[in-house]
Amino acid sequence: MVISIILGVIIFGYAFWALYSSIKKSKKGVCASCEIADHCHSNCNSSLKNNRLN
After folding, report:
1. CA distance 32 to 47
2. Which residues cross the membrane (predicted)?
């Protein structure tokens, strides 16, 4: 019984953490949520502005 409760807390805790992390990344924008943003050579801000204007 105790093991089931501990496993439940771990599983739901991780699920809430993953959801929170996902929401936090999505608020930062497209480039912030990209996995290769540190190594990307494109300028996301200017390309997004150009797409909105067209």
Report:
1. 14
2. 6-23
